[in-house]
Design a protein that fits this description.
CATH architecture of the domain at 66-365: Alpha-Beta Barrel
Bound molecules: zinc ion
CATH superfamily of the domain at 66-365: Metal-dependent hydrolases
Shape: globular
Largest sheet: 9 strands, mixed
Length: 476
Protein backbone atom coordinates (compact mmCIF):
# COMPACT_ATOMS: atom_id res chain seq x y z
CA UNK A 1 0.00 0.00 0.00
CA UNK A 2 1.44 3.34 -1.07
CA UNK A 3 1.80 6.19 1.45
CA UNK A 4 0.39 9.70 1.10
CA UNK A 5 -0.40 12.53 3.52
CA UNK A 6 -3.50 13.62 1.66
CA UNK A 7 -5.65 12.28 -1.15
CA UNK A 8 -7.87 14.68 -3.07
CA UNK A 9 -10.74 12.74 -4.65
CA UNK A 10 -13.76 13.40 -6.85
CA UNK A 11 -12.24 16.39 -8.58
CA UNK A 12 -12.66 17.65 -12.11
CA UNK A 13 -8.95 17.57 -12.63
CA UNK A 14 -6.99 19.64 -15.11
CA UNK A 15 -3.46 18.30 -14.87
CA UNK A 16 -2.20 20.53 -17.74
CA UNK A 17 -0.01 17.60 -18.79
CA UNK A 18 0.27 16.64 -22.48
CA UNK A 19 -0.45 19.04 -25.34
CA UNK A 20 -3.84 20.26 -23.99
CA UNK A 21 -5.30 20.64 -20.52
CA UNK A 22 -5.01 17.00 -19.37
CA UNK A 23 -8.58 16.59 -18.13
CA UNK A 24 -9.39 13.72 -15.77
CA UNK A 25 -13.05 13.21 -14.91
CA UNK A 26 -13.55 12.14 -11.28
CA UNK A 27 -9.85 12.67 -10.73
CA UNK A 28 -7.62 12.30 -7.69
CA UNK A 29 -4.23 13.61 -6.54
CA UNK A 30 -2.08 12.05 -3.83
CA UNK A 31 0.25 14.38 -1.93
CA UNK A 32 3.22 13.22 0.07
CA UNK A 33 5.33 15.83 1.87
CA UNK A 34 5.82 18.80 -0.45
CA UNK A 35 5.27 16.81 -3.64
CA UNK A 36 2.63 15.13 -5.76
CA UNK A 37 2.88 11.36 -5.33
CA UNK A 38 0.26 10.27 -7.86
CA UNK A 39 -2.42 11.56 -10.22
CA UNK A 40 -5.26 9.42 -11.57
CA UNK A 41 -8.90 8.51 -11.19
CA UNK A 42 -10.55 8.51 -7.77
CA UNK A 43 -11.22 4.77 -8.04
CA UNK A 44 -7.63 3.85 -8.76
CA UNK A 45 -6.01 6.17 -6.21
CA UNK A 46 -8.43 5.28 -3.41
CA UNK A 47 -7.40 1.66 -3.85
CA UNK A 48 -3.70 2.50 -4.01
CA UNK A 49 -3.75 4.97 -1.09
CA UNK A 50 -6.38 3.33 1.10
CA UNK A 51 -4.78 4.67 4.33
CA UNK A 52 -4.40 8.31 3.28
CA UNK A 53 -6.48 11.13 4.71
CA UNK A 54 -9.06 12.12 2.08
CA UNK A 55 -10.43 15.39 0.89
CA UNK A 56 -13.63 14.98 -1.13
CA UNK A 57 -13.59 17.76 -3.72
CA UNK A 58 -17.25 17.14 -4.61
CA UNK A 59 -16.74 17.85 -8.27
CA UNK A 60 -14.74 21.03 -7.75
CA UNK A 61 -12.24 21.94 -10.41
CA UNK A 62 -8.67 21.26 -9.32
CA UNK A 63 -5.86 22.92 -11.20
CA UNK A 64 -2.15 23.60 -10.73
CA UNK A 65 -1.64 26.87 -8.86
CA UNK A 66 -1.40 29.87 -11.16
CA UNK A 67 1.89 31.49 -12.06
CA UNK A 68 2.20 35.27 -12.11
CA UNK A 69 5.55 35.60 -13.80
CA UNK A 70 6.08 39.34 -13.48
CA UNK A 71 5.04 41.59 -10.62
CA UNK A 72 6.28 44.61 -8.70
CA UNK A 73 4.54 44.15 -5.38
CA UNK A 74 6.77 46.83 -3.81
CA UNK A 75 4.88 49.61 -5.63
CA UNK A 76 1.43 48.27 -4.82
CA UNK A 77 0.70 51.27 -2.63
CA UNK A 78 0.51 53.27 -5.87
CA UNK A 79 -2.47 51.24 -7.12
CA UNK A 80 -4.51 53.30 -9.53
CA UNK A 81 -2.12 56.23 -10.01
CA UNK A 82 -0.70 55.66 -13.49
CA UNK A 83 -3.39 54.83 -16.00
CA UNK A 84 -5.20 56.70 -18.77
CA UNK A 85 -2.18 58.96 -19.38
CA UNK A 86 0.88 59.34 -21.57
CA UNK A 87 4.28 58.85 -19.93
CA UNK A 88 2.82 56.74 -17.12
CA UNK A 89 6.21 56.11 -15.53
CA UNK A 90 7.47 59.69 -15.55
CA UNK A 91 4.16 61.37 -14.76
CA UNK A 92 2.36 58.62 -12.85
CA UNK A 93 4.92 56.73 -10.77
CA UNK A 94 8.01 58.89 -10.43
CA UNK A 95 6.30 61.80 -8.63
CA UNK A 96 5.79 59.38 -5.71
CA UNK A 97 9.13 57.68 -5.99
CA UNK A 98 11.10 59.61 -3.38
CA UNK A 99 8.20 59.50 -0.93
CA UNK A 100 7.79 55.72 -0.81
CA UNK A 101 9.71 54.45 2.20
CA UNK A 102 10.70 50.81 2.67
CA UNK A 103 7.95 50.44 5.27
CA UNK A 104 5.41 51.63 2.74
CA UNK A 105 6.68 49.24 0.07
CA UNK A 106 6.44 46.35 2.53
CA UNK A 107 2.90 47.24 3.61
CA UNK A 108 1.66 47.61 0.03
CA UNK A 109 3.34 44.42 -1.11
CA UNK A 110 1.49 42.38 1.47
CA UNK A 111 -1.91 43.47 0.15
CA UNK A 112 -0.78 42.76 -3.42
CA UNK A 113 0.27 39.22 -2.48
CA UNK A 114 -2.94 38.59 -0.53
CA UNK A 115 -5.05 39.77 -3.46
CA UNK A 116 -3.20 37.51 -5.89
CA UNK A 117 -3.32 34.44 -3.65
CA UNK A 118 -7.04 34.91 -3.08
CA UNK A 119 -7.47 34.65 -6.86
CA UNK A 120 -5.35 31.51 -7.21
CA UNK A 121 -1.76 32.64 -7.71
CA UNK A 122 0.72 30.29 -6.04
CA UNK A 123 3.97 31.32 -7.78
CA UNK A 124 5.10 34.95 -7.67
CA UNK A 125 7.66 36.42 -10.07
CA UNK A 126 8.30 39.41 -7.86
CA UNK A 127 10.81 42.02 -9.05
CA UNK A 128 11.67 44.97 -6.79
CA UNK A 129 14.49 47.13 -5.55
CA UNK A 130 13.96 46.03 -1.97
CA UNK A 131 13.23 42.38 -2.54
CA UNK A 132 14.86 41.03 0.62
CA UNK A 133 12.44 43.08 2.69
CA UNK A 134 9.47 41.51 0.94
CA UNK A 135 10.62 37.90 1.27
CA UNK A 136 9.22 37.50 4.81
CA UNK A 137 5.74 37.92 3.30
CA UNK A 138 6.25 34.86 1.11
CA UNK A 139 7.80 32.96 3.94
CA UNK A 140 4.86 33.69 6.19
CA UNK A 141 1.98 33.37 3.71
CA UNK A 142 3.36 30.15 2.27
CA UNK A 143 3.45 31.14 -1.42
CA UNK A 144 6.17 30.19 -3.88
CA UNK A 145 8.40 33.05 -4.98
CA UNK A 146 10.87 33.36 -7.84
CA UNK A 147 12.27 36.79 -7.30
CA UNK A 148 14.85 39.29 -8.54
CA UNK A 149 16.33 42.51 -7.27
CA UNK A 150 15.46 45.31 -9.64
CA UNK A 151 18.80 46.81 -10.63
CA UNK A 152 18.77 50.30 -12.10
CA UNK A 153 21.02 53.33 -11.98
CA UNK A 154 18.46 56.06 -11.38
CA UNK A 155 19.72 58.58 -8.80
CA UNK A 156 17.67 58.18 -5.60
CA UNK A 157 16.47 61.75 -5.21
CA UNK A 158 15.43 62.17 -8.80
CA UNK A 159 11.77 63.07 -9.24
CA UNK A 160 10.05 63.33 -12.59
CA UNK A 161 12.05 63.69 -15.82
CA UNK A 162 10.52 65.53 -18.78
CA UNK A 163 9.38 62.97 -21.38
CA UNK A 164 11.80 62.74 -24.31
CA UNK A 165 14.86 63.74 -22.28
CA UNK A 166 17.61 61.30 -21.39
CA UNK A 167 17.28 60.31 -17.80
CA UNK A 168 20.39 60.63 -15.67
CA UNK A 169 22.13 57.35 -14.81
CA UNK A 170 24.56 56.78 -11.99
CA UNK A 171 26.03 53.28 -12.12
CA UNK A 172 27.27 53.45 -8.53
CA UNK A 173 23.55 53.16 -7.66
CA UNK A 174 23.19 50.14 -9.95
CA UNK A 175 26.38 48.57 -8.62
CA UNK A 176 25.00 48.72 -5.07
CA UNK A 177 21.78 47.11 -6.26
CA UNK A 178 23.75 44.35 -8.00
CA UNK A 179 25.42 43.65 -4.66
CA UNK A 180 21.96 43.48 -3.11
CA UNK A 181 20.88 41.01 -5.81
CA UNK A 182 23.92 38.86 -5.01
CA UNK A 183 23.07 38.97 -1.30
CA UNK A 184 19.45 38.12 -2.11
CA UNK A 185 20.67 35.14 -4.09
CA UNK A 186 22.91 33.97 -1.30
CA UNK A 187 20.21 34.32 1.33
CA UNK A 188 17.16 33.07 -0.55
CA UNK A 189 18.05 30.98 -3.55
CA UNK A 190 16.80 27.45 -3.06
CA UNK A 191 15.65 28.41 0.43
CA UNK A 192 12.40 27.32 2.07
CA UNK A 193 12.96 23.72 1.04
CA UNK A 194 12.99 24.80 -2.61
CA UNK A 195 10.01 27.17 -2.38
CA UNK A 196 12.15 30.23 -3.12
CA UNK A 197 14.53 30.93 -5.96
CA UNK A 198 16.34 34.00 -7.16
CA UNK A 199 17.08 35.51 -10.56
CA UNK A 200 19.08 38.61 -11.46
CA UNK A 201 17.02 41.65 -12.36
CA UNK A 202 18.39 44.54 -14.42
CA UNK A 203 15.37 46.84 -14.77
CA UNK A 204 15.89 47.39 -18.50
CA UNK A 205 18.73 47.97 -20.96
CA UNK A 206 17.93 51.70 -20.81
CA UNK A 207 18.19 51.97 -17.03
CA UNK A 208 21.80 51.04 -16.39
CA UNK A 209 25.10 51.39 -18.21
CA UNK A 210 26.35 48.72 -20.63
CA UNK A 211 29.31 47.61 -18.56
CA UNK A 212 27.20 47.20 -15.48
CA UNK A 213 24.61 45.27 -17.49
CA UNK A 214 27.33 42.88 -18.60
CA UNK A 215 28.48 42.52 -14.99
CA UNK A 216 24.93 41.61 -13.95
CA UNK A 217 24.74 38.88 -16.61
CA UNK A 218 28.18 37.61 -15.63
CA UNK A 219 27.14 37.30 -11.98
CA UNK A 220 23.94 35.50 -13.04
CA UNK A 221 25.75 33.12 -15.39
CA UNK A 222 28.36 32.31 -12.77
CA UNK A 223 25.48 30.97 -10.65
CA UNK A 224 23.46 29.53 -13.55
CA UNK A 225 20.69 31.91 -12.56
CA UNK A 226 18.21 33.43 -15.01
CA UNK A 227 17.97 37.16 -15.77
CA UNK A 228 14.57 38.83 -15.39
CA UNK A 229 14.50 42.07 -17.39
CA UNK A 230 12.10 44.46 -19.09
CA UNK A 231 13.01 44.49 -22.78
CA UNK A 232 11.55 46.81 -25.43
CA UNK A 233 8.95 47.71 -22.84
CA UNK A 234 7.79 50.91 -24.49
CA UNK A 235 8.64 53.75 -26.86
CA UNK A 236 10.23 55.43 -23.85
CA UNK A 237 12.85 52.67 -23.59
CA UNK A 238 13.53 52.57 -27.33
CA UNK A 239 13.98 56.36 -27.41
CA UNK A 240 16.40 56.23 -24.48
CA UNK A 241 18.33 53.41 -26.14
CA UNK A 242 18.61 55.28 -29.43
CA UNK A 243 19.65 58.51 -27.72
CA UNK A 244 22.19 56.85 -25.44
CA UNK A 245 23.46 53.87 -27.42
CA UNK A 246 22.33 54.45 -31.00
CA UNK A 247 20.64 51.03 -31.07
CA UNK A 248 17.29 49.46 -30.28
CA UNK A 249 17.26 47.15 -27.27
CA UNK A 250 17.28 43.70 -28.95
CA UNK A 251 20.21 44.53 -31.26
CA UNK A 252 22.10 46.11 -28.38
CA UNK A 253 21.61 43.05 -26.16
CA UNK A 254 22.43 40.64 -28.97
CA UNK A 255 25.67 42.44 -29.76
CA UNK A 256 26.69 41.95 -26.12
CA UNK A 257 25.78 38.24 -26.22
CA UNK A 258 22.98 38.68 -23.70
CA UNK A 259 20.08 37.14 -25.64
CA UNK A 260 19.84 33.49 -24.63
CA UNK A 261 17.81 30.84 -22.82
CA UNK A 262 18.74 32.39 -19.47
CA UNK A 263 16.86 35.61 -20.32
CA UNK A 264 13.27 36.16 -19.22
CA UNK A 265 12.36 39.16 -21.38
CA UNK A 266 9.38 41.06 -20.03
CA UNK A 267 6.87 42.82 -22.31
CA UNK A 268 8.63 43.12 -25.73
CA UNK A 269 5.92 45.69 -26.39
CA UNK A 270 7.91 47.55 -29.01
CA UNK A 271 9.67 44.54 -30.54
CA UNK A 272 9.33 44.26 -34.33
CA UNK A 273 8.59 40.93 -36.05
CA UNK A 274 12.30 40.51 -36.77
CA UNK A 275 13.21 41.26 -33.16
CA UNK A 276 10.62 38.77 -31.91
CA UNK A 277 12.09 36.14 -34.24
CA UNK A 278 15.58 36.91 -33.00
CA UNK A 279 14.63 36.54 -29.34
CA UNK A 280 12.78 33.28 -29.97
CA UNK A 281 15.68 31.96 -32.02
CA UNK A 282 18.13 32.75 -29.23
CA UNK A 283 15.92 30.74 -26.84
CA UNK A 284 14.89 33.63 -24.59
CA UNK A 285 11.54 33.36 -22.79
CA UNK A 286 9.01 36.18 -22.48
CA UNK A 287 6.37 37.45 -20.08
CA UNK A 288 3.21 38.93 -21.55
CA UNK A 289 1.35 41.36 -19.26
CA UNK A 290 -1.83 42.11 -21.22
CA UNK A 291 -3.68 44.18 -18.61
CA UNK A 292 -0.76 46.38 -17.68
CA UNK A 293 0.45 47.07 -21.21
CA UNK A 294 -3.09 47.58 -22.44
CA UNK A 295 -3.71 50.21 -19.80
CA UNK A 296 -0.39 52.04 -19.73
CA UNK A 297 0.49 51.85 -23.44
CA UNK A 298 -2.71 50.95 -25.28
CA UNK A 299 -0.80 48.18 -27.04
CA UNK A 300 -0.86 44.40 -27.51
CA UNK A 301 2.69 43.00 -27.26
CA UNK A 302 3.69 40.34 -29.81
CA UNK A 303 3.17 37.31 -27.56
CA UNK A 304 1.24 35.31 -30.16
CA UNK A 305 4.02 35.88 -32.70
CA UNK A 306 6.64 34.93 -30.14
CA UNK A 307 4.87 31.64 -29.36
CA UNK A 308 4.40 30.98 -33.07
CA UNK A 309 8.19 31.22 -33.42
CA UNK A 310 8.52 28.54 -30.75
CA UNK A 311 9.20 30.91 -27.85
CA UNK A 312 8.16 30.09 -24.26
CA UNK A 313 5.71 32.65 -22.85
CA UNK A 314 4.27 33.28 -19.38
CA UNK A 315 1.67 35.78 -18.19
CA UNK A 316 2.15 38.52 -15.61
CA UNK A 317 0.04 41.12 -13.82
CA UNK A 318 3.00 43.54 -13.65
CA UNK A 319 2.19 46.54 -11.48
CA UNK A 320 -0.79 47.91 -9.61
CA UNK A 321 -0.27 51.63 -10.45
CA UNK A 322 -1.37 50.88 -14.01
CA UNK A 323 -3.14 47.54 -14.24
CA UNK A 324 -4.84 47.98 -10.92
CA UNK A 325 -5.25 44.29 -10.15
CA UNK A 326 -3.22 41.14 -9.63
CA UNK A 327 -5.56 38.47 -10.88
CA UNK A 328 -4.41 35.83 -13.32
CA UNK A 329 -7.96 35.08 -14.54
CA UNK A 330 -8.05 38.69 -15.67
CA UNK A 331 -4.72 38.30 -17.47
CA UNK A 332 -5.80 35.05 -19.16
CA UNK A 333 -8.99 36.61 -20.41
CA UNK A 334 -7.30 39.79 -21.59
CA UNK A 335 -4.51 37.83 -23.31
CA UNK A 336 -7.07 35.85 -25.30
CA UNK A 337 -9.33 38.80 -25.94
CA UNK A 338 -6.73 41.36 -26.98
CA UNK A 339 -5.16 38.99 -29.48
CA UNK A 340 -8.52 38.08 -31.00
CA UNK A 341 -9.19 41.79 -31.42
CA UNK A 342 -5.70 42.53 -32.72
CA UNK A 343 -6.06 39.89 -35.43
CA UNK A 344 -9.82 40.23 -35.88
CA UNK A 345 -9.93 36.46 -35.46
CA UNK A 346 -11.68 34.63 -32.58
CA UNK A 347 -9.47 31.58 -33.10
CA UNK A 348 -6.32 33.38 -31.97
CA UNK A 349 -5.13 32.50 -28.45
CA UNK A 350 -7.96 30.15 -27.35
CA UNK A 351 -8.89 29.67 -23.69
CA UNK A 352 -6.93 26.44 -23.26
CA UNK A 353 -3.80 28.18 -24.51
CA UNK A 354 -4.25 31.08 -22.08
CA UNK A 355 -4.68 28.57 -19.26
CA UNK A 356 -1.47 26.86 -20.29
CA UNK A 357 0.36 30.21 -20.25
CA UNK A 358 -0.73 30.74 -16.64
CA UNK A 359 0.31 27.21 -15.63
CA UNK A 360 2.52 24.73 -17.44
CA UNK A 361 3.99 27.01 -20.09
CA UNK A 362 4.44 29.84 -17.63
CA UNK A 363 6.41 27.51 -15.38
CA UNK A 364 8.65 26.50 -18.27
CA UNK A 365 9.20 30.13 -19.27
CA UNK A 366 10.42 31.12 -15.81
CA UNK A 367 12.63 28.07 -15.49
CA UNK A 368 10.46 26.09 -13.06
CA UNK A 369 9.08 23.64 -15.63
CA UNK A 370 10.38 20.62 -13.76
CA UNK A 371 8.96 21.82 -10.42
CA UNK A 372 5.47 23.29 -10.86
CA UNK A 373 2.89 24.25 -13.50
CA UNK A 374 1.20 20.88 -13.91
CA UNK A 375 -0.12 18.09 -11.73
CA UNK A 376 2.45 15.39 -12.25
CA UNK A 377 4.03 12.92 -9.83
CA UNK A 378 7.32 14.32 -8.56
CA UNK A 379 6.40 17.99 -8.99
CA UNK A 380 5.70 20.18 -5.99
CA UNK A 381 2.11 20.05 -4.76
CA UNK A 382 0.86 23.52 -5.75
CA UNK A 383 -2.88 23.29 -6.40
CA UNK A 384 -6.09 25.24 -6.24
CA UNK A 385 -9.73 24.22 -5.89
CA UNK A 386 -12.36 26.19 -7.79
CA UNK A 387 -15.94 26.05 -6.53
CA UNK A 388 -17.90 24.06 -9.09
CA UNK A 389 -21.14 25.53 -7.74
CA UNK A 390 -20.14 29.13 -8.49
CA UNK A 391 -22.70 30.88 -10.71
CA UNK A 392 -19.85 32.21 -12.86
CA UNK A 393 -18.99 28.65 -13.95
CA UNK A 394 -22.42 27.15 -14.33
CA UNK A 395 -23.92 25.25 -15.95
CA UNK A 396 -21.04 22.80 -16.33
CA UNK A 397 -20.98 20.31 -19.18
CA UNK A 398 -18.58 17.45 -18.48
CA UNK A 399 -18.82 15.66 -21.78
CA UNK A 400 -18.64 17.09 -25.28
CA UNK A 401 -19.07 19.96 -25.68
CA UNK A 402 -17.12 20.35 -22.41
CA UNK A 403 -17.35 24.01 -21.42
CA UNK A 404 -15.20 24.18 -18.28
CA UNK A 405 -12.01 25.73 -19.64
CA UNK A 406 -13.78 28.49 -21.60
CA UNK A 407 -15.83 29.30 -18.50
CA UNK A 408 -12.72 29.40 -16.31
CA UNK A 409 -10.85 31.73 -18.63
CA UNK A 410 -13.68 33.96 -19.80
CA UNK A 411 -15.87 34.09 -16.72
CA UNK A 412 -13.99 33.42 -13.48
CA UNK A 413 -13.34 36.45 -11.26
CA UNK A 414 -11.01 34.77 -8.78
CA UNK A 415 -13.20 34.57 -5.67
CA UNK A 416 -14.31 31.10 -6.82
CA UNK A 417 -10.89 29.80 -5.75
CA UNK A 418 -11.57 28.67 -2.18
CA UNK A 419 -8.69 26.33 -1.31
CA UNK A 420 -5.00 26.43 -2.06
CA UNK A 421 -2.03 24.21 -1.40
CA UNK A 422 1.58 25.29 -1.95
CA UNK A 423 4.55 22.99 -1.50
CA UNK A 424 2.25 20.39 0.09
CA UNK A 425 0.91 22.79 2.75
CA UNK A 426 -2.65 24.13 2.81
CA UNK A 427 -2.40 27.94 2.81
CA UNK A 428 -6.04 28.83 2.05
CA UNK A 429 -9.24 27.12 3.15
CA UNK A 430 -12.83 28.28 2.80
CA UNK A 431 -11.53 31.37 1.00
CA UNK A 432 -9.43 32.44 4.00
CA UNK A 433 -5.67 32.71 3.84
CA UNK A 434 -4.52 30.85 6.91
CA UNK A 435 -1.29 32.67 7.71
CA UNK A 436 -2.23 36.33 7.56
CA UNK A 437 -4.84 38.76 8.84
CA UNK A 438 -5.95 40.18 5.49
CA UNK A 439 -8.12 42.94 6.96
CA UNK A 440 -5.26 44.20 9.14
CA UNK A 441 -2.93 44.22 6.14
CA UNK A 442 -5.40 46.33 4.14
CA UNK A 443 -5.86 48.76 7.03
CA UNK A 444 -2.11 49.22 7.47
CA UNK A 445 -1.56 49.82 3.76
CA UNK A 446 -4.33 52.40 3.76
CA UNK A 447 -2.57 54.46 6.43
CA UNK A 448 0.75 54.32 4.62
CA UNK A 449 -0.86 55.27 1.30
CA UNK A 450 -2.40 58.39 2.82
CA UNK A 451 1.00 59.37 4.27
CA UNK A 452 2.73 58.80 0.95
CA UNK A 453 0.21 60.85 -1.00
CA UNK A 454 0.28 63.71 1.46
CA UNK A 455 4.10 63.87 1.42
CA UNK A 456 4.15 63.92 -2.38
CA UNK A 457 1.41 66.56 -2.48
CA UNK A 458 3.18 68.81 0.04
CA UNK A 459 6.46 68.53 -1.86
CA UNK A 460 4.71 69.74 -5.01
CA UNK A 461 5.60 66.56 -6.86
CA UNK A 462 1.99 65.95 -7.84
CA UNK A 463 1.44 69.39 -9.38
CA UNK A 464 2.14 68.10 -12.89
CA UNK A 465 0.28 64.82 -12.43
CA UNK A 466 -2.75 64.41 -14.67
CA UNK A 467 -4.50 62.73 -11.75
CA UNK A 468 -4.31 65.97 -9.77
CA UNK A 469 -5.95 67.83 -12.62
CA UNK A 470 -8.60 65.16 -13.16
CA UNK A 471 -9.40 65.12 -9.47
CA UNK A 472 -9.92 68.90 -9.53
CA UNK A 473 -12.10 68.53 -12.61
CA UNK A 474 -14.29 66.03 -10.83
CA UNK A 475 -13.30 63.15 -13.10
CA UNK A 476 -11.86 60.89 -10.41
ZN1 LIG B 1 7.40 45.42 -14.90
Amino acid sequence: MAQADLLLIHARLFTMEGPGVGYVADGAVAVQGSRIAAVGTSDALQREYAQAERMDCQGDIVLPGLIDAHMHTGIALLRGTAQDMDHWMQLGIWPFRRHVTDEMAVAGSLVNIIEAMQAGTTTFGDYNSNMAQLMPHYERLGARARVAEMIHSLPPQQGSVPPGELYPLDDTVGEALLQRNIALYEDWHDAGGGRFSVMFGPQGPDLLGGELLQDVFAEARRRQAMVHMHVAQGDREILQMELRHGQRSPAYLDAMGLLGPDLLAVHLTEATDQEVQLLAKRGAAMVYCPGSIGIIDGLVPPAAEFMQQGGRAALGSDQLPGNNCANMWNEMKLAALFNKIKYRDPKVLPAWKALRMATVEGAAAIGLGDQVGSLKPGKYADMIRVDAKAPTLNPILDTAPRNIVPNLVYSLRGHEVHWMMVHGAVVMAERQLLNVDAAAAVAAAQQWAEKMASKARQAGDLDASPLTKWTEQGLL
